[in-house]
């Protein structure tokens, strides 16, 4: 579903992403770990078609993102670190608008169903989102993905700033989507959440994918150690 | 997607307090302005009707009198307030409402509304045209300055992009949402004006076509402003910056450009001062025949020519009163002099108008203002036309009186008097302003300029989509 072949992005002399090769299949959740500037967000922006690659290619559902920007967007949903909605519109109205842009025309009942599946409390459906917490907005983001029937989910630090309960709920939602066959690529700093939700984990540094693991093959402490080793914090862990 | 964006934007707009408040203020101002203008319109036209009737009855009731005395006694040509002045008062306030028509002299219009006010009149009046030309563009800015910047600032842009939004469709949706309230306000105002005008007595030429034409002109003007505001919003990153740029644009287009155009026009093609104008007319008049002076060289020459033409030795032998004949010839000379000098003035006005038209490329306000005034018959063109019609009537009146004097009395009979019922034979002064068709034809250049503004601004808006 998500494939990158030697994907590279340079800004002048600075290499933001260096020959990234990734493959995330249906029903997989791939967590990209790394410090700020590791290249996680650049990867997501390239997959979204927001920026052009310097070399290499990115594919969504076997379609080259940069050759088919419109078509690839039909398959993906995106939740940024701080998902913002229109504050003067209700949750249902926001969902209706974003679904409409994607060419979907769900009924109000269906929209409420998506919000319910995303875990939003029913009393919030018709409330203006100006009063929503970040966790509630992220749930609307998931509802947007559900309404779109997205095959690919791109998440950029979605749990950053969420309280543990909200973060846990978000993880559960991702698992639900995984079971539906959605391929997810999530950039995060949160090792614990990555270990909890991911099927695959990659550690990036300086635009390079340094290490990859199957999530089931590694414990949280091993993951932490690997992460810190990659980040050159060897002395701290030893 | 256009419809979805339109609905979303409309909901957002009307749920914001600032929009509701500003719409309420504009509607309240419009209501007050229409009410004030209607009252003024009715009051001025009542005065017009009363003055016209009174003046005519004074003329008709002069009794037995020498026609040339009646010519000096004079009469008035009154300019009515035209129906669409309810919407655009144009230069009416400064142009004068009546012209005194007398023998030998062409007078300018007098009794302007501005002359009846104190210096405070410089602050201007609350009129529908003020709201249409200045306040509604401001409202467009207030409603639309953040239309696109907010997508960046709120962070919804990334989500929109990821949903595969078509930007030109989004912009068309936003354009419609911004333009529709303005369209509703404008159409409502013109509908109210139409209903008011069709219900009250008027002395002009109200027709719905002219009202519709005026409404369309303003709709074009607002469409240009909507485009410009959205272009600014698309090209800036911060709403504050967008607001400042849009307001600067409004100041430049609506306040600075017209004043600058006035300065340039006056500098390039200055009008003579009133004293210079009067002095040059007097000089030319003195170089020709004075109907009142039988001893002048010109009078003597005329006398010789007429005697030779009729083959008689004495003015007493002529089949008409030579005094009346000379008076008419003197009038004809004066009329030529006035025609020449007013033509020079008019030519200068035309040149100034051309300067305005040239500078209209700098601001959509200028062509809109000129077209609006022309359709409302409150522009200087109409005033000139009225003034020319009054002068034609004055010349015809003098001819009518002089010929009656010449044909019905003998040479030297200055004491001869016309019958008391003679005055009623003089047709009343009637003035019909140009038809809507002619006005639109005359305003072709301004219409084209506004059309170009509309086309270019709309193309510019669609081009900015690429940069958004």
CATH superfamily of the largest domain in chain A: P-loop containing nucleotide triphosphate hydrolases
Distance between the termini of chain A: 39 Å
Poorly predicted runs of 5 or more residues of chain A? none
Give the N-terminus to C-terminus distance of chain B in angstroms.
17 Å
CATH class of the largest domain in chain A: Alpha Beta
Record the strand order, biggest sheet of chain B. Answer: 1-2
Total helical elements of chain A: 9
Strand content of chain B: under 5%
CATH topology of the largest domain in chain A: Rossmann fold
- The helicity of chain B comes to 55-70%
Largest sheet of chain B: 2 strands, antiparallel
Cα shape of chain B: elongated
Beta-strand residue fraction of chain A: 25-35%
List SSEs of chain B in N-to-C order: HHHEHEHHHHHHHHHHHHH
Please identify, by name, the CATH architecture of the largest domain in chain A: 3-Layer(aba) Sandwich
Summarize the structure.
The complex is a heterodimer of chains A (238) and B (468). Chain A has helices at 40-48, 69-73, 91-101, 108-117, 134-148, 164-179, 191-197, 220-230, 234-237, and strands at 2-11, 14-24, 29-34, 55-60, 63-64, 76-79, 152-156, 183-188, 200-205, 208-214.
Which short descriptors sum up this protein?
heterodimer, A: 238 residues, alpha/beta, Rossmann fold, six-stranded mixed beta sheet, four-stranded antiparallel beta sheet, B: 468 residues, mainly alpha, two-stranded antiparallel sheet, 17 helices, 70% helix, 2% strand, elongated
